[in-house]
UniProtKB/TrEMBL annotation:
UniProt xrefs under SMART domains: WD40 (SM00320)
PANTHER family listed in its UniProt record: BROMODOMAIN AND WD REPEAT-CONTAINING PROTEIN 1, WD REPEAT DOMAIN 9
Segments forming a coiled coil: none
Mapped WD repeat ranges: 1-39, 40-82
Superkingdom, taxonomy of origin: Eukaryota
Keywords assigned by UniProt, alphabetized: Repeat, WD repeat
Biased composition (Polar residues): 239-261
Protein name: BRWD1 protein
SUPFAM superfamilies cross-referenced by the UniProt entry: WD40 repeat-like
Gene coding for it: Brwd1_0
One Gene Ontology cellular component: nucleus
Length: 267
């Protein structure tokens, strides 16, 4: 196999360069002389994440598609900490990205199963305020293309970037309470009645019919200045026609006999 570099990172003070190679090794180089200092062994698949510590020049983090996350001391070429991202009943989850916090006390990772992993010192209680499962209700909605080859949301016929902010749901599509909906950018100051999604029954891939979020409330569309859906437009048109008929009937009745003789038509 021809060696290929998949990722490269400088350490905090630029004295070292770390490269990830497709033979699953990490190599630590002296950035001034180009000398190879260490081979870091531990990964079993390709590595696409290398993150240096924000102020400790000795520390480098690596993560890869094998589900392994390592904290290395690159000056000694040794492994400091290791975590394997095993998911119960599903094998391991490939780690796609990692970032240190500015104070260097925590780091967060995302994996191929949609999980956010937070590591650090201290108690995890502050992170228990939000549900374990958080998805946008539009995450897996089908897209189509219009006559101009632009992408549209299949259900609303709108460009995805012009749609109102989505709702937060669990893995089964059930909406979270309104206090969590305010976590979505664009919904921070909405009233409670504007944070209740429109529900409907949707058939899943295995044929089971479940109740899920199917769209936004029309009041949200009004606030955002967006075009309503085709169905909403038809409903409003019918309501307008009914209101016009009612108004005409009332006008006819008011211009009829004023002495109580005769019966006005019912709207």
């Amino acid at each position: 196999m021809k060696p290929k570099v998949t990722m490269i990172a400088w350490n905090q003070n630029d004295n070292y360069v770390v490269t990830a190679v497709n033979n699953h090794l990490l190599k630590v180089w002296n950035s001034y002389t180009g000398q190879l200092l260490h081979d870091l062994v531990g990964h079993a698949d390709e590595v696409f994440v290398l993150e240096t510590h924000p102020f400790d020049s000795r520390i480098m983090l690596s993560a890869g598609h094998d589900g392994n996350i390592f904290i290395w001391d690159i000056t000694k070429g040794t492994k400091t900490k290791h975590y394997f991202n095993m998911i119960e009943g599903q094998g391991h989850g490939a780690v796609f990205d990692c970032k240190f916090s500015p104070d260097g006390q925590h780091f967060a990772c995302t994996d191929s199963h949609g999980h956010l992993l937070v590591f650090g010192f201290g108690c995890s209680r502050p992170y228990e305020k939000i549900p374990d499962q958080m998805f946008f209700h539009t995450d897996y909605r089908p897209l189509i293309r219009d006559s101009n080859n632009y992408v549209l949301d299949e259900q609303t016929q709108q460009a995805p970037h012009l749609m109102p902010p989505p709702f937060l749901v669990d893995v089964d599509g059930n909406p979270h309470p309104t206090k969590y909906q305010r976590l979505v950018p664009g919904r921070e100051n909405c009233a409670d009645e504007h944070l209740i999604p429109q529900l409907g029954y949707v058939a899943t891939s295995d044929g089971e019919v479940v109740e899920q979020v199917i769209g936004q409330q029309t009041v949200d569309q009004d606030e955002q200045g967006l075009e309503p859906s085709i169905l909403d437009g038809m409903i409003r048109q019918l309501q307008l026609q009914q209101d016009q008929r009612t108004g005409a009937d009332q006008e006819s009745a008011s211009s009829g006999p004023q002495n109580g003789e005769g019966t006005p038509r019912r709207g």
